[in-house]
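Notes from hallway chat w/ T.B., transcribed later so I don't forget. T.B. wanted the structure written out for a chain they're using in a teaching module, and asked if we could keep both sequence and structure tokens in one place. Agreed to drop them here.
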Amino acid sequence: MGNQLHLTYFFLLLSFIITGSGAYAHPDFTKLFVFGDSYVDTGNLEEGSQPWKEPYGITYPGKPAGHCSDGRVFSEFIAAWMGIEPPTPYRFRRWRPIEQGMNFAYGGSGVFYTSTNMSAQIDLFEQVLEEKLYTQDDLNDSIALVANSGNDYYAYIEKGGSLLDIGDFIISVVNQLRSNLQRIHNRGVKKIVVMELQPVGCLPAFTIPDSYEKCNDTVNVLTTIHNLLLTLAVEELNLESGESAFVRLHMYDAFMSAIKKHEDETGTSDILRPCCPGITSNYSCGEVENGVKKYSVCTDPTSAFFWDWVHPTQAGWQAVYSVLRSSTANPFQREFWGSF
């Protein structure tokens, strides 16, 4: 009888350990909601746009698939980090599985005046919630990835914005991004990961004047200002929420380390040169005029870090992901959030 009681208590204790705490019952997040731009968009851009044309997708899946790269983009590596399939793009929600979240990102987006903006993406997210496609339990098991990779600044310059006033504009961009993060959190997503700006001055669009030999330090200083303000915004959001609900991904340092690592591993001497440039700066990868290709493609995309004027190759994203994974505790698992 005594032994039976001991066994009963043992199994009750075991049952409590397994089911009594959410951290044990569901150790990791099971859904990913993605907001932002082409660095994380996996197919929301309309067919006929640049990433739906050759040679995009040449590495994976072997044909154009709406990814602004030769293959996978950053959000797909994050999904792998979580151990889930990449979330379905919003435009395909009626035909593809949505159990693992949804991708609302749209190439070219910023927080302000771009082709679309992040506020519109959050509107779509709210519509999806109103349609009861996800429950609060689903949101409790989810995490949001938010990318803002510089489109606001490109649009600002293209529309004649003054460099003398760009400091004020950076403040307004970060403030709006902060509001967007808060809005996502208010809709029930408990954990939000926001990407810092990458070293924009190292993108081929900014290194072409120097024959891809060096990064543009002036542009990178402005990038650093954005990231410093974003750091403050995230700290404020965590203080206001009374919990550690927001975290930054250190994209600037990850890019710089990954570029150097990829250069060393591949032996590429001009690591800042894109694999698929336009024949001049007036043309882009995939552009065709009167039946004539106005771009060239490198022999081996896996040896290149950058794909076109502003996007990494799949190999480039793999390098960034590898740096983050080796240097950062995984913010896409629950145990991370209990550590700070």
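Follow-up for T.B.: Strands lie at 31-35, 88-89, 101-103, 142-146, 191-195, 246-249, 288-289, 292-293. Might be a good example for the class.
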